[in-house]
Amino acid sequence: MDRALELARMAPDTGDVPVGAVLVDESGVTWGQGVNRREADGDPLAHAELLAVRDAARSRSGWRLDGLTVVVTLEPCAMCAGALAQARVGRIVFGAWDPKAGACGSVWDLVRDRRTPTWIEVVGGIREQECAAELTAFFGRRRS
User: Fold this and answer.
1) Are 94 and 75 in contact (CB under 8 A)?
2) Across the strands, what pairs with 63?
3) CA–CA gap between residue 98 and residue 68 (Å, rounded)
4) How far apart are CA 95 and CA 116, in angstroms?
5) For residue 125, what pLDDT is reported?
6) Residue 42, number of CB atoms within 10 A of its CB
7) Helices (DSSP H) in 90-127: which residue ranges?
8) Based on the number of CB atoms within 10 Å of its own CB, is 128 exposed (0-12), middle (13-18) or buried (19 or more)?
9) All residues at 6 or more sequence positions from 30 whose CB lies less than 8 Å from its CB, including other chains
10) Band of the pLDDT at 140, cuts 50, 70, 90?
């Protein structure tokens, strides 16, 4: 989560919501990382998780990310949860819950729905206050 938070703290420089994501294996080796870049790139798909998945797929020379864990500062949305399932990520670990758009247990639970072809372990609320504080500070500055 340390690296995900470091990445998240880079996002406000571009005007993006501070979310960082890292894909690691069981040994702790980083295979991919990303930070929100929707504003910076003008790309609605440039969520931290998707950029980290693309990075990991390049690093592993393939789209199947079996055995990897994504560590992200904010609960993934439906788009990201779906992409993580399609990439066959084994575990999602996130910091802050997203009561408006979260799709890993708060609003929806796409990755653990029994109708989904793959089941992903989810661990939420890791360093929740620290992750939420980054988001609260960002939106506080934006509203000022």
Assistant:
1) yes
2) none
3) 22
4) 23
5) 96
6) 8
7) none
8) middle
9) 3, 22, 23, 24
10) confident
Which residue, among 77, 134, 85, has the nearest Cα to 101 in the 3D structure?
77
Q: What is the pLDDT of residue 115?
A: 83
Contacts of 71 (CB under 8 A, 6+ apart): 1, 3, 4, 21, 22, 23, 24, 93, 94, 126
**Do residues 29 and 40 touch, judged by C-beta distance below 8 A?**
no
Cβ neighbours for 79, distance < 8 A, ≥ 6 positions apart: 45, 47, 50
- Supply 141's token pair: 């500055």
Tell me if residue 49 is catalytic: yes
pLDDT digits (tens, 9 = 90+) for 12-63: 788 999 999 999 999 999 999 999 999 999 999 999 999 999 999 999 999 9
The model scores a pTM over 0.90:
yes
Q: Is 48 exposed, middle or buried (0-12, 13-18, 19+ CB in 10 A)?
A: buried
Tokens coding 92:
């999602």
Among the listed residues 39, 49, 130, 134, the single catalytic one is 49
**Which position has the token pair 């609960």?**
75
Measured at the CA of 28, the angle between CA 26 and CA 31, to 5 degrees, comes to 95
